[in-house]
Structures are given as C-alpha cells and as structure tokens.
C-alpha cells in the first residue's frame, strides 16, 4: 500500500528540500515520487526543488511539479502577480493520489511554512494534507528561535486534526552551539512529536551518490534510517 507524506516546515530556507531528498534516498528499493505543488522564484527551464530531490536521492525518484511562478514570493502572491492560476488543494490531492497508484511513497513538499497561502481564498498546504488524510513531517532549524516556531506549527496541525509524523532538523551545524545542542531534547517537547533526524549543514551540496549514502545516517528508523539523538 502506498504511503503519502507531506513535508512542511516552520519557515522558508530551512532545509525542506534536503530533508525530502533524504527521506526519498532512505527509501531506496521503493518506488518514490516527490510532488512540488508550487515552485516559486525560478524561470522556466531552471531545475526546481523536485528535480533537486531526484538529483540527490537517485534514479528511483519521480519528480513532479504542478505549477511554477517566477517571483520568489508566497505562491498566492506569485501567481497573482504573474497573472497565472494558483494551485488549489484539490489539485494537489488529486496529483498525489494519482502518483500513489504507481509509487510506494509519495512526498509532497510545501513552499515556505504550513500556512503559506496557495490562493487568495486562503487555501494552504494544510488543506491539501487534510484532503489526503496524510501525516505531516515538520522540518525545523536547529538553533535559537526554533522551539516557538515548531510549537506553533504543531498547534496549527492539531487544530486542523492533522497528524505530525515528527520533526527533522533541516541543517545541523557541524559544531552546534548551546541552543542547537539543547534543542535536540527540546524540539520533541515543543512539537509533541518525535525528533526523527538531523541533516547536516551543507548536505545539499554533496554529489548525489554521497548524499544517498549518507541519508540513512541522518534519519531515524521510522524514516528508514539509523539516526538516534546524540548521533551525528
């Protein structure tokens, strides 16, 4: 039976794509699809987040992008300014369900945080997750300030009846400061869900083969890896 997992985060530029790639790489041996509902900030022909996941994770990954808007803005704003139709949650759900008929794992990677608007009616990635009855994996930064943002994201999930699969640190410094070290213990409390991994800073710059080889070390067994708190 196919699994659909939504990957969101506490903000933008915190490592969602790299974490999505790590989950896809750790699922080697399974048919994996990554779905990017709305790609912003790129011109036609430039490789987007879904293509980057496939580059890092390996040839077993199918990359799908539903819509692309050129300006680096929230999807609703970027679509409006470009004069293009926005992405609707039902379109995301339909695309994910179709991919699930041909793949063992479908990863739906959001843009920005959980409640970033897809359209001017206020639809969000959370609405797509609800239509899919899919759990959400939350990507969070390592350092100071992450606990509040993680707690707010988890509260938003709970208020919508959505499950939080867990939290993954999107970019763990090689030499973590005091806050980053303490957050290993505090993030699960803030989220009310387990910490399921920590992807090292700079991992996205690795060659695909090296990234794929390392992915299992960065993720907990629940995501197909061997990582445990305290292990890097």
TrEMBL record:
ATP binds at residues 13-18, 49, 109-112, 170-171. Its main location: cytoplasm. GO terms for molecular function: dethiobiotin synthase activity. Homodimer. Substrate binds at residue 40. Its cofactor is Mg(2+). Its EC number is 6.3.3.3. It comes from the Bacteria. It is an enzyme of class 6 (ligase). It is found in: Cytoplasm. It catalyses: (7R,8S)-7,8-diammoniononanoate + CO2 + ATP = (4R,5S)-dethiobiotin + ADP + phosphate + 3 H(+). Belongs to the dethiobiotin synthetase family. Pfam families: AAA_26. The active site is at 36. The keyword GTP-binding does not apply. Pathway: Cofactor biosynthesis; biotin biosynthesis; biotin from 7,8-diaminononanoate: step 1/2. PANTHER family: DETHIOBIOTIN SYNTHETASE. Mg(2+) binds at residues 17, 49, 109. This is ATP-dependent dethiobiotin synthetase BioD. InterPro entries: DTB_synth_BioD (IPR004472), P-loop_NTPase (IPR027417).
């Amino acid at each position: 039976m196919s699994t659909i997992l939504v990957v969101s985060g506490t903000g933008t530029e915190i490592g969602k794509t790299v974490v999505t790639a790590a989950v896809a790489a750790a699922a080697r041996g399974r048919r994996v699809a990554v779905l990017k509902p709305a790609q912003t900030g790129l011109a036609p022909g430039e490789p987007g987040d879904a293509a980057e996941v496939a580059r890092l994770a390996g040839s077993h990954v199918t990359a799908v992008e539903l819509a692309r808007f050129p300006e680096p803005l929230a999807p609703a704003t970027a679509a409006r300014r470009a004069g293009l139709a926005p992405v609707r949650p039902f379109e995301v759900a339909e695309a994910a369900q179709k991919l699930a008929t041909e793949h063992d794992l479908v990863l739906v990677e959001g843009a920005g945080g959980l409640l970033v608007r897809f359209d001017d009616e206020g639809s969000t990635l959370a609405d797509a997750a609800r239509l899919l009855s899919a759990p959400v994996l939350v990507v969070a930064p390592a350092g100071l300030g992450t606990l509040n943002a993680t707690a707010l994201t988890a509260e938003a999930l709970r208020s919508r009846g959505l499950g939080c699969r867990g939290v993954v640190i999107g970019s763990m410094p090689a030499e973590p400061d005091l806050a980053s070290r303490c957050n290993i213990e505090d993030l699960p409390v803030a989220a009310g869900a387990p910490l399921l991994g920590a992807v090292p800073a700079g991992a996205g710059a690795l060659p695909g083969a090296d990234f794929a080889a390392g992915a299992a070390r960065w993720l907990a067994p629940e995501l197909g890896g061997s990582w445990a708190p305290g292990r890097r």
